[in-house]
Design brief:
Elements lengths: L11 H18 L5 H12 L3 H8 L3 H9 L2 H5 L19 E8 L8 E7 L5 E6 L4 H15 L4 E4 L3 H4 L1 H10 L2 E4 L9 H21 L4 H15 L9 H7 L11 E5 L6 E11 L2 E6 L2 E6 L2
Parallel strand pairs: 1-4, 4-5
Antiparallel strand pairs: 1-2, 2-3, 6-7, 7-8, 8-9
Helix pairs in contact: 2-4, 3-4, 9-10
EC number: 2.7.7.49
GO molecular function: DNA binding; endonuclease activity; hydrolase activity; RNA stem-loop binding; RNA-directed DNA polymerase activity; zinc ion binding
Organism: Hirundo rustica rustica
Amino acid sequence: MHISSHTDLPGFIAEGNRRADALAVPVEMAPLPNIFGQAKISHQLFHQNAPGLIRQFHLTWEQARAIVSMCPSCQQHSLPALSAGANPRGWNSCEVWQTDVTRIMSFGRQRYVHVSVDTFSGAVYASAHTGEKSGDAMKHLIQAFSFLSIPKSIKTDNGPTYTSRKFRSFLQQWGVEHKTGIPYSPTGQAIVERTHQNLKRVLSQQHQSLKLETPQIQLSKDLFTLNFLNCTFENLNPPTVRHFRENCQLQLEAKPPVMIKDPATRETEGPHDLITWGRGYACVSTPSGPKWVPAK
């Protein structure tokens, strides 16, 4: 129980309140560790890569490399090389995805992990299922669409999961073109195969803190690390930033000129170029700069 007014009144409740405040003071005044210390703590939690540490904490290359090299889990689970194969990439996000299924035996009944990756941005979505049939693949893709938007085309292998009439009809309903490669060939699906390895590597690195969680919770933390924290030295923006910044579906195609009514003078002005708008507001470009106006 906590007293809203801190007084010197007698009684066990007031005394307990004073003791609680005394114990809380050291916690409130405890200083945060320095930036290097914060980066180490973050890496212990997420195991993001060195470029991700540099971007997030503004470390030097030597500092970031030292944190990763001192992490036993990261040294134990290194990423092997994989042949690139024939892997056409999209020029923008949501142009070409690769989709496949991998198995993570520690997930038990939900060991079939369906994975989709955008070949331009590297943004990835994964979900745990009890099977690898067409119905499971369709459930996964609906979730992936809600997370990454709808792609123009999806490339899969030529296995039975993706060649059924039911699956083809599903993609037609969503307006997605379906491309297939050689059945069970890892080189034709090298981008998603490498994503499988990345998922499993990060899961292994984070296993100690997540071993009691459900498969989807484990995947969620894994996806957060891959999509929001990890990046490369060539592009320090993480995959999610690249994905939504270059998504043509989310960009306003036209900025039509509009007339507005000044809230102060009640006079009509314009036409002005529309910058953005939403429920109850709009923003237009005026000679003096952007101007926000209410709907009424």
